[in-house]
Design brief:
The complex is a heterodimer of chains A (121) and B (109).
Chain A: E1 3-7, E2 10-12, E3 18-25, E4 34-39, E5 45-51, E6 58-60, E7 68-73, E8 78-83, E9 92-99, E10 108-111, E11 115-119
Chain B: E1 5-6, E2 9-12, E3 18-23, E4 33-37, E5 44-48, E6 53-54, E7 62-67, E8 70-75, E9 84-91, E10 98-100, E11 104-108
Parallel strand pairs in B: 2-11
Antiparallel strand pairs in B: 1-3, 3-8, 4-5, 4-9, 5-6, 7-8, 9-10, 9-11
Classes of the chains: A mainly beta (121), B mainly beta (109).
């Protein structure tokens, strides 16, 4: 079945780094744009970053630009998020999500179960 | 503007109709999508393509529409299982970034 499974979350100190991964299965990964969306405890959804089907274009929210980098490996059906310079306000559940389009359309039709990132000293 | 504004909370009596709204300038240019999220679960896409499509398995009591810069999610005959947080999203003015509304907590009385 169509599935996204995130991994790589954990607890890290401010200023530290983490790399999140998302394993896709059950669909042609290389045909869809992909996104990372986060949700801080008790808060709403916040888009973090998106990448086109062929990785030719990638975009990041202003809140993470210069610190986070989205990437994908279509040969391995894997989406990644490299997070550097982590701050307390980055603490959230991070979701991997599929866009229904090849480029960013904004309708996220498949979501993973999320992975928790906690930034704390 | 790239912001989408939603009412924080809405309530509806069981079996009645409720409308959840989402306001933002970018909605004039880009489709609005709606998500349902229940506690401890990932969001689910409910309505997309400006209300023209419902995700598989979503009951037809859910519908979407837009007028000007305001999009609406309507639940006709709300059920207890519809109690959840609802988020709208679209793209920002550049078309390259995704934006979410702040969410609306729906209570079914």
């Amino acid at each position: 079945q169509v599935q996204l499974v995130e991994s790589g979350g954990g607890e890290v100190q401010p200023g530290g780094s983490l790399r999140l991964s998302c394993a896709a299965s059950g669909f042609t990964f290389s045909s869809y744009a992909m996104h990372w969306v986060r949700q801080a405890p008790g808060k709403g959804l916040e888009w973090v970053a998106g990448i086109w089907y062929d990785a030719s274009n990638k975009y990041h929210a202003d809140s993470v630009k210069g610190r986070f980098t989205i990437s994908r490996d279509n040969s391995k059906n894997k989406l990644s998020l490299q997070m550097n310079g982590l701050r307390a306000e980055d603490t959230a559940v991070y979701y991997c999500a599929r866009d229904w389009g090849m480029i960013i359309e904004g309708a996220l039709d498949i979501w993973g179960q999320g992975t928790m990132v906690t930034v704390s000293s | 503007s790239s912001e989408l504004t939603q009412d924080p909370a809405v309530s509806v009596a069981l079996g009645q109709t409720v409308r959840i709204t989402c306001q933002g300038d970018s909605l004039r240019n880009f489709y609005t999508n709606w998500y349902q999220q229940k506690p401890g679960q990932a969001p689910i896409l409910v309505i997309y393509d400006e209300g023209n499509k419902r995700s598989s398995g979503i009951p037809d009591r859910f519908s979407g529409s837009r007028s000007g810069n305001t999009a609406s999610l309507t639940i006709t005959g709300a059920q207890a299982e519809d109690e959840a947080d609802y988020y709208c999203n679209s793209r920002d003015s550049t078309g390259n970034h995704v934006v979410f509304g702040g969410g609306t907590k729906l209570t079914v009385l």
